[in-house]
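Slide 14.
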Amino acid sequence: MHIIVTAGPTHEPIDPVRYLANRSSGRQGFAIADALAARGLQVTLIAGPVKLDTPPGVTRINVTTAREMALAVDAALPADAAIMVAAVADWRVESVGQKIKKSAAGAAPVLHLVENPDILATVARSPQRPRLLIGFAAETENVIANAEAKLAKKDCDWMVANDVSGDVMGGAENTVHIVTKDGVESWVRMAKEAVAQRLAARVFAAICPNEV
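Slide 15: predicted structure.
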């Protein structure tokens, strides 16, 4: 069984020395990849720019931007399941070839934003769609309601929702809600490694029911 996991942030260049980013550490995605590989599954981990060791037995592909991640995910298909944990930038800047300088008048530069590819929705529409497609919803308000809306919009099977208004991004613990068409299952706050083990067990049961 082949599983694709995305993890970490993406960095979107503004100019040769600056970029847009977020606080994702990649820790949750790496822990999930580790837990799945420990169960004997073939795992391809597509990682944004993070300083984390590759889990044992995992094939790692490093990317920087959202567009690079989208291409890497497409190249990694087919897969039995895909777990999209990465905090992918929704927008990128129309970058310039030279470092942006301060103007003499002190006016702030105007950045023109372009929408990045929606990796989760693209995989959902792919002829090679995995039979289990899982998205992550990083929310700061109306966590479950927003995750339910995202589940329907992205046409995936499960949405793992978490509240990132506190210390989740970059932190050691997480509180998640597993949102499916059948309802919501809320887990207590626990270490990200424990979340990974519990989610890996659920994924394994879904794609390898005869081996549970």
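Speaker note: DSSP finds five helices and 14 strands in the chain.
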